[in-house]
Amino acid sequence: MTESDRSARLTAASEVAVARVPAKRAAPRFSRLSPAARRQEILEAARRCLARDGVGGFTVAEIASEAGISNGLIGHYFPTKDALLVATYQVEADRLLESTRAALDGKDEDPDWRLKALLGSAFCVEIFNEETVATWLALWGQVRTNAALREAHKEIYATYRRGFARAIARSAEARGLDLNAVALASDISALIDGLWLEWGLDPQLFEAADAIAACHRLLAAHGIDLD
């Protein structure tokens, strides 16, 4: 047998041996999230469904499909659809309050500066955008008929109005004005909601700066001129 023949046989034997060894399978990849991360994932999916399709799209099946998980997994974190709706509302409220806190995160203690910052935070791009406004419109539509959501709404809005009332009272005091800061804060809150509603129905109606100017005009009518 020639050297060439021996080499060929060795090569063939080697190939047969390799063929007999079962191929090593790639380890399956799993997406394991912590409970907190999974809960947040569900809430973000719920928010997207609300923003895109309104309450009609707020179903367990749609949200599960959006999140890429099973229907049963949603039930593990949220026992009822109402519980998920209230949690979604709370997430949106937290974003709103966080925007307010961020706007006031400065050293300027001038009362007018703080009041202007509060108004500006209501129309900053982080929350005054089509997706967020659409989400709020869908949630507001459920407040009147959903008892759990109504209670959450009352608590959240009471906190929001108190912040405005304090800021208005300080600006009024600096001017020597005697006015009802609580009532004016309620008026401002209603104006902001109305502007969000109008813009949500037709974003071409006005810009954020126009909305802020409308709030300034309301305050100026009561003697607090911020311009």
Descriptive account of the structure:
With 227 residues, this protein is mostly helical. 72% of the residues lie in helices and 0% in strands. The protein is built from 10 helices and no strands. The chain has helices spanning 3-20, 35-53, 60-67, 71-77, 81-103, 111-121, 130-143, 147-175, 181-201, 208-220. Helix 2 crosses helix 3 (60-67) and helix 9 runs antiparallel to helix 10. The longest helix has 29 residues, at 147-175. The protein is elongated and about 60 Å long. The relative contact order is 0.09.
What order do the helices and strands come in, and which of them pair?
Blueprint: H1 3-20, H2 35-53, H3 60-67, H4 71-77, H5 81-103, H6 111-121, H7 130-143, H8 147-175, H9 181-201, H10 208-220
Helix pairs in contact: 2-3, 2-5, 2-7, 5-6, 5-8, 6-8, 7-9, 8-9, 9-10
Which key terms come to mind for this protein?
10 helices
Query: How helix-rich are the residues, as a percent range?
Result: over 70%
Specify the structural class: mainly alpha
Average pLDDT reading: 85
Total count of helical runs of at least 4 residues: 10
Cα end-to-end separation: 103 Å
| Largest sheet geometry | none
DSSP strand count: 0
**Uncertain stretches:** 1-30
What's the order of the H and E elements? Answer: HHHHHHHHHH
